[in-house]
Recover the amino acids of this structure.
């Protein structure tokens, strides 16, 4: 059945794409467009063809669900060439989004009109690909190499007014897409406009390809598709259109076979699946209009900033007047950053810092809020005291959330008279910037409270992941383990600087020691002290970094940690004191340092991460491997193009990962205890992704 309807309006044929929800270019749509063009050309009296999309978008691109399967003819490049080669005048009328192959169909049309609110873009690089239906050849001919490279290598969504300025579209007009499209086509016919095939436009001007390639590769931190896009655009200058199309196709097909493409597409679907939990089917979230925040430090102020920006009324509670004033200033500082970046106007800033935000020292101000997030000091007694007060003042049905990073949410919940209303909402600092939210579900948390946590995350623009209760939940628990693997490598001879460099080369935004400096070394120091009494005798815990903390050096905030930071400079230089302290500890422990290759560093670090992640899934703390993947990608700088650590493990082969763990266990059986789930999957010849698929059924 064709998904493209044919209709006739005097001498204009209209092809309407009908493939909900977003008019992806599935096989039936490609066939329908081909048939529609044939029909229009055979239809006597037709002088022009208008292509429109029904529903919420013009076309959101190729059908991603077809990727990885054998492509079936007609292929999209042929469909685009067919449209462009028509002797009739072809016009595209775009609304909603026109992405990837969707924009390529529009570029094959001879003229393009779009709704002012619509967006165009070539997001293929976010799927580990390059455009595969002519955009790398047509767009540079239409708007020049530099602007084309900006669109293709960033994959950004471009709003219609900017697209008009860039020359991607010809006209912007508000109205029903078919009606404005018909009027525009009519005016073109009336003025005798001729066919205008982009492929026939002159070749664009060359640039310094070498420099562009290197800069793009560096910016992508090892992601290959944006850099490949530079090469494809180069072909638009150096080759004929036909040859360039072949070059683009070959590169597209080669990228299709890469692990990065698989990882990126896993991330695309996982990002959408995290909030799709069977337990929430049919469960309505509670109404959310006003939010309370307890504590106005960096975290509380960040949460309050995110909440006012999302349109909530916010009441923030601090203990004393001075602290309340400081909290207000912190939030205003965050919001003025949003003004500077052009995200909000000064007028909006004024409204948000006055009308939307109330800062108070009186818990009674929370009497009518719908949800409260506590972000006070990480101490169980302090938290219980806060929850006691909330229990007394908050209205029935108010959701009581803790932002604790590791404390037992069950214990907090049980200290109140309404444990079903208690949940963990673990934000990441700075909370108005970081995308991840762990929704921590305690034993007695009501389903509609969980749904409300997800609804809040969505309203704040976060990617929310469901986590169960354990020390560190999903992210910090796994972090503690892979950080430990890195610490062990330092004791055995790798330097923190080699480890950071190797992992940054792997694709992490920052290495673990640079991250520790940024987060504050006092956090890890406190955790080590907290865990010391229950530590197993075989646990290897380096103490050299405690010596630095004892001297008051906590990383970036004090100017010294693993690195030394100069005022005004972002990065640091290796701290010689660290090297000395490590050597002293190695001597005391009788360790002869050995050399590590970068590959071994990555392997050990990743094996530790995957092993702990498998325990987290096996114990039900994360419901599915994809929940772990999205936690690490959105909260811990894990390279998106690997899809997440569990996808990475699938791509390596779980047998190989388990075999590494067993090898490492020969030196340290305590730390490298294989996760039962990993062992089971290897024995059964299954993957983590199999578990994702089973959970989706
Ligand atoms: N193919 C298949 N399914 C798609 C799709 C696509 N291109 N784009 C979106 N969908 C699906 C989503 O998976 C989702 O499905 P479920 O409801 O079953 O979860 C549904 O459409 C709605 O999508 P969202 O929930 O994401 O809705 P949204 O309104 O938040 O966003 C969107 C809509 C902006 C189109 C967003 O979905 C998006 O960015 N899609 C991807 C666009 C893209 O990358 N296109 C390029 C494809 S590659 C290409 O075209 C290569 C080529 O040159 C041949």
């Amino acid at each position: 059945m064709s998904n493209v309807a044919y209709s006739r309006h005097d001498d204009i044929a209209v092809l309407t794409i009908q493939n909900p929800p977003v008019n992806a270019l599935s096989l039936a749509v490609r066939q329908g467009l081909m048939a529609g063009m044939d029909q229009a050309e055979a239809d006597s009296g037709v002088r022009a063809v208008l292509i429109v999309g029904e529903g919420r978008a013009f076309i959101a691109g190729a059908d991603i669900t077809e990727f990885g399967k054998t492509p079936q003819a007609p292929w999209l490049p042929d469909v685009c060439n067919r449209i462009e080669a028509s002797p009739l005048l072809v016009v595209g009328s775009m609304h909603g989004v026109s992405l990837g192959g969707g924009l390529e169909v529009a570029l094959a049309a001879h003229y393009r009109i779009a709704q002012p609110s619509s967006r165009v873009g070539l997001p293929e690089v976010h799927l580990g690909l390059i455009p595969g239906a002519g955009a790398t050849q047509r767009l540079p001919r239409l708007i020049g190499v530099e602007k084309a490279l900006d669109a293709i290598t960033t994959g950004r969504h471009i709003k219609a007014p900017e697209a008009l300025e860039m020359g991607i579209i010809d006209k912007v007009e508000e109205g029903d897409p078919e009606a404005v499209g018909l009027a525009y086509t009519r005016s073109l016919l009336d003025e005798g406009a001729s066919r205008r095939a982009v492929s026939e436009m002159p070749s664009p001007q060359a640039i310094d390809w070498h420099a562009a390639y290197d800069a793009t590769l560096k910016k992508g931190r090892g992601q290959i598709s944006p850099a490949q896009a530079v090469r494809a655009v180069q072909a638009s200058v150096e080759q004929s259109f036909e040859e360039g199309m072949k070059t683009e196709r070959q590169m597209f097909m080669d990228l299709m076979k890469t692990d990065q493409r698989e990882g990126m597409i896993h991330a695309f679907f996982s990002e959408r699946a995290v909030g799709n939990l069977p337990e929430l089917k049919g469960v309505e979230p509670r109404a959310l209009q006003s939010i309370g925040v307890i504590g106005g430090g960096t975290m509380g102020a960040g949460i309050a900033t995110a909440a006012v920006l999302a349109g909530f009324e916010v009441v923030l509670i601090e203990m004393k007047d001075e602290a309340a004033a400081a909290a207000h200033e912190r939030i205003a500082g965050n919001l003025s950053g949003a003004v500077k970046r052009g995200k909000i106007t000064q007028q909006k800033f004024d409204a948000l810092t006055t009308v939307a935000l109330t800062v108070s020292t009186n818990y009674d101000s929370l009497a009518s809020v719908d949800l409260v997030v506590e972000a006070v000091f990480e101490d169980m007694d302090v938290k219980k005291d806060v929850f006691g007060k909330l229990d007394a003042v908050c209205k029935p049905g108010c959701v009581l959330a803790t932002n604790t990073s590791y404390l037992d949410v069950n214990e907090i919940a049980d200290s109140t008279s309404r444990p079903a209303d208690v949940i963990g909402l673990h934000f990441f600092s700075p909370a108005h910037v970081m995308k991840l939210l762990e929704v921590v579900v305690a034993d007695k948390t009501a389903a509609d409270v969980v749904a409300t946590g997800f609804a809040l995350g969505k309203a704040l623009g976060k990617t929310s992941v469901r986590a169960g209760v354990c020390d560190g939940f999903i992210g910090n628990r796994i972090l503690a383990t892979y950080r430990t693997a890195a610490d062990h490598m330092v004791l055995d001879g790798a330097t923190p600087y080699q480890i950071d460099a190797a992992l940054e080369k792997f694709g992490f935004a920052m290495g673990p020691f640079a991250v520790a400096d940024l987060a504050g070394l006092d956090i890890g120091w406190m955790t080590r002290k907290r865990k010391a009494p229950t530590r197993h005798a075989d646990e290897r815990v380096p103490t050299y970094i405690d010596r630095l903390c004892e001297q008051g050096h906590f990383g970036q905030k004090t100017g010294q940690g693993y690195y030394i930071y100069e005022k005004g400079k972002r990065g640091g230089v290796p701290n010689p004191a660290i090297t000395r302290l490590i050597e002293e500890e190695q001597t005391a422990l009788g360790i002869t340092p050995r050399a590590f290759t970068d590959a071994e560093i990555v392997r050990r670090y990743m094996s530790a991460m995957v092993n702990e992640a498998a325990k987290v899934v096996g114990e039900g703390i994360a419901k599915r491997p994809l929940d772990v993947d999205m936690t690490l990608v959105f909260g811990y700088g894990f390279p998106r193009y690997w899809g997440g650590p569990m996808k990475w493990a699938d791509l390596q082969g779980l047998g190989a990962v388990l075999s590494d763990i067993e090898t490492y266990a020969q030196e340290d059986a305590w730390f490298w205890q294989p996760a039962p789930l990993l062992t089971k999957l290897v024995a059964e010849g299954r993957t983590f992704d199999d578990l994702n698929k089973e959970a989706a059924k």
